[in-house]
Amino acid sequence: MYSQGLQDAKGGPEPEGLLKAFQKRIDNEEKIEPRDWMPEAYRKTLIRQMSQHAHSEIVGQLPEGNWITRAPTLKRKMILLAKVQDEAGHGLYIYSATETLGITRDEMTRQLLSGEAKYSSIFNYPTPSWADMGAIGWLVDGAAIMNQVPLCRASYGPYARSMIRICKEESFHQRQGYDIMTVLARGTAAQKKMAQDALNRTWWPALMMFGPSDKDSKHSAQSMQWKIKRFTNDDLRQKFVDATVPQAEHLGLTIPDKDLKWNEDRGHYDFGEIDWQEFMEVIKGNGPCNKQRLRARQKAHDEGEWVRKAAEVYQQKQQDAA
Amino acid sequence: MNKAIEHYLLRLADTALTQSQRIAEWCGHGPFLEEDIALTNVALDLLGHAKLLYEQAAEVSEQDVSADDLAFLRDVDAFKNPILTELPRGDFAFTTLKQYFVDQFNVLLYQALMDSQYQPLSDIATKALKEVRYHLTRSRDWCLRLSLSTDEAKQKMQAALDDLYFYTPELFETDDQLNQLMAESIIPDMSALHNQWQQQVDELLNKCQLKTPTSGWLATGGLRGEHSEHLGYMLADMQFLQRAYPGCEW
Ligand SMILES: [Fe+2]
Ligand SMILES: [Fe+2]
Known about the structure:
The complex is a heterodimer.
Chain A: H1 16-27, H2 40-59, H3 61-65, H4 74-99, H5 105-114, H6 131-148, H7 157-185, H8 189-208, H9 220-225, H10 233-251, E1 261-263, E2 268-270, H11 276-286, H12 290-321
Antiparallel strand pairs in A: 1-2
Chain B: H1 2-24, H2 33-60, H3 67-72, H4 92-113, H5 119-147, H6 151-164, H7 176-183, H8 190-207, H9 230-238, H10 240-244
Helix pairs in contact in B: 1-2, 1-7, 2-5, 4-5, 4-6, 4-8
């Protein structure tokens, strides 16, 4: 039975009747709303997943923010600025949706800065060249779309609704990224090399964005049952590879995987094994930029302390005067 | 005449671009999320104005140049912005007060430029005015919020004012070409504009209970291409790709 062992907030068993009714609503594709009864484990799973998602948007500002002052044309600078701003908006939007589950943004921020909460491992890789702006838009936003489109139908209403809005912007980001890659791939030899190098850097970390392989994924089954997830990690990863390989071919760039091959029988591309060792290390905090990213967030947080305090005191003074 | 117009368009474009470049440095590093987004909005608007102004400058230029050439291929001595807008971003108080000075200037200037005898400038001013008005509301509010809240915030605002105040008259600096444009009602009278600006600023600083400093280095020279040490670093950063890979499409 799916509900076996589920515990309420006090550690007691969840009431069987409520659990059944809850699952029935989910099976009927009804949305669960903040005031509705929900199992404690459902709430916790959502808080974990949604806050992780929000943190990823915020930390994700950093690798691309790295090129804002150096974007090569006025137009590219505007697009990049707007994109990084969109990601901040996504973060804000998802934090608000997560707050409906009974956790504050301050607490989520604390969890991010203390390392308790995770964010997508992709943002722990560096962006040494302009082409990384292209590769990130194309592959990272592309992978995000694969992950997020099914979330538009997630059972938790506020999450599903935030995803609908976000997905529209992510597809715009993906097109812009692909456009950067297209121009570079058709450019000078140096530009083409820049594009290929960025693809080489980003490909495997992008595949890791779908999470551990199904056989090692501990949260998958229950999340599928609750319709927080609709597809498994491996399904989504396969979809992503199938969609992306022709795009790389169109660009005339080579995906850095010697095992990549069309499999006629399966009707899918076969691809090589992900370096799970590297994945685990980055998750643990040992990626090339983990420390740098968290320190940047910590610094902004610390330097903003007096500003947040001032805003709060001023508002209080205004209220007292009124 | 076209030379003078090009010169002035570049003055405005360089001012908008350098101001935008500094504000954009906050993107991803703001004091909190809502403000991160709001600051980036300002940077985006200013960048949009810079783009329109460069495009117009490229149009009137005798040389075959694009807006991007003007932004990315001129060196320090060709940039015409006042030194104020190239100063490093500093802390949030410094950024806020600097933005306020620029916003107050932009609002008065674009209001006046709507009546310019040079139609393209009047069109750009009309377009930009709505945005810079919004910027002004925002930066004014923040000046008040920071100055009239905690002691720490107030001290930071006072320090920012001490550092920034004598950079502001340069916003109104003119030369022979600008004087010619003023005579032809293409741009407004700069000393009248300065008076209006000063009045507004005095009023706000008074409300903020901040004291204007009595002495400091009176900035000058941007219009002639004479800049601080900071602009070179900004351009090295901003122009890197265009310089390292000349002649490429991006
Ligand atoms: Fe996003
Ligand atoms: Fe995105």
